[in-house]
Amino acid sequence: MRIIIAPDSFKESLSARAVAEAMAAGIRDAMPQAQTVCVPMADGGEGSLEAVLAATGGEQRTLTVLNANGQKHQASWGWLGDGKAFIEMAAAAGLEQIPETERRPLQASSYGVGQLIKDAVEAGAVHIAVGLGGSATNDGGAGLLQALGAHLFDAQGNELPAGGAALSQLARVCLDEVDPRMKQVRFDIAVDVDNPLCGPRGASAIFGPQKGASAQDVQVLDQALGHFADVCARQFEKDERNLPGMGAAGGLGFAIKTCFDADFRPGVELIAELSCLAQAMEGADLVFTGEGKMDAQTVLGKTPVGVARVAARQGIPVIALVGALGEGYEEVYAAGITAAFSLTPGPITLQQACEQGAGYLRQRARDCMRVWLAASARSGSGTAG
């Protein structure tokens, strides 16, 4: 029996690889002869780099960059070979790197992400996938452009300081000093949201508060991003602000899409492609997936549903093991999940759940396999062997 294990990470508890390994152990507890294939997954946010490297055997490279607050920070990116690279923007400008009391949404910059891209290009990358999510920034990717050699000038010809708020003073974007190799680079931008750049569903209004933005800050940032988009629309003769996903990661993808060759794709779809998930599923009997919490939001592009859609093309049933089942989780059944189960055996604290997550995963995977094997034996399907 061949079983594919393709979960997301359990945030603040277990990496996708650790989740997959715990599930595999539980499956083998019930069926020692089972062939388990672990394909750690992600949807473009935190943990995506680790998942891609684990699945592809890529090379992790590390660079000293500036984090969202302009402080030196060690960030990694992935060299996948054959001119391909993967960059997780949260590795350079992630929210988790900045203590809550030190978050500065008006000044936070995506400069470090541009440094990672520059390093990848210098290594020979011509096809770069960028996972968006978990950012501490709200600058529309302006800092990223500056790291690549662009200049953002105000009406007096002065270079703008870092951060999204400063974009309200933007008069001109100069790309003359950007590395000419950037013209040869093709970007795939991995997103798990469909928010536009500006407005009530935009980067500032929806995601700004979690980055420390007050109601007044949100208004300032939204207006500044709108002005940034106005200047870019006039200068580059295209307006990308309302495309789905432009609001992800503080609008980071807006700068990439406006200035370079870039396509936006659902994060889990891109990670699945990089990880060769469909090929791994060929001939499989069953798929396990999972995430920290499953609810109505899962169907909007999260890992379990993305995995289920790949499995559905080959008619493979999918079991989801999750830390918690939230309101509306049943919607995942229509999206291809066969059954979903919460890990915890009873009322426990979040800390206990995180600390004992691997054990619970192993137990629930074992239990699910026992039911599967009993049903297979009863139907005479022969898959139990």
The overall number of domains is 2
Largest sheet: 6 strands, mixed
Structural class: alpha/beta
Helical stretch tally: 14
State the CATH topology of the largest domain: Glycerate kinase, domain 2
User: What would you call the shape?
Assistant: elongated
Number of strands: 15
Helix proportion range? 25-40%
Measured between the Cα atoms of the first and last residue, the distance is 7 Å
Beta-strand portion reads 15-25%
H and E string: EHEHEEEHHEHEEEHHHEHHEEHEEHEHH
* CATH class annotation of the largest domain: Alpha Beta
Strand order across the largest sheet: 3-4-5-6-9-10
CATH architecture of the largest domain: Alpha-Beta Complex
Question: Which stretches of 5+ consecutive residues score pLDDT under 50?
Answer: none
Radius of gyration: 22 Å
User: Considering the protein shown, what is the CATH homologous superfamily of the largest domain?
Assistant: Glycerate kinase, domain 2
Average predicted confidence as pLDDT = 93
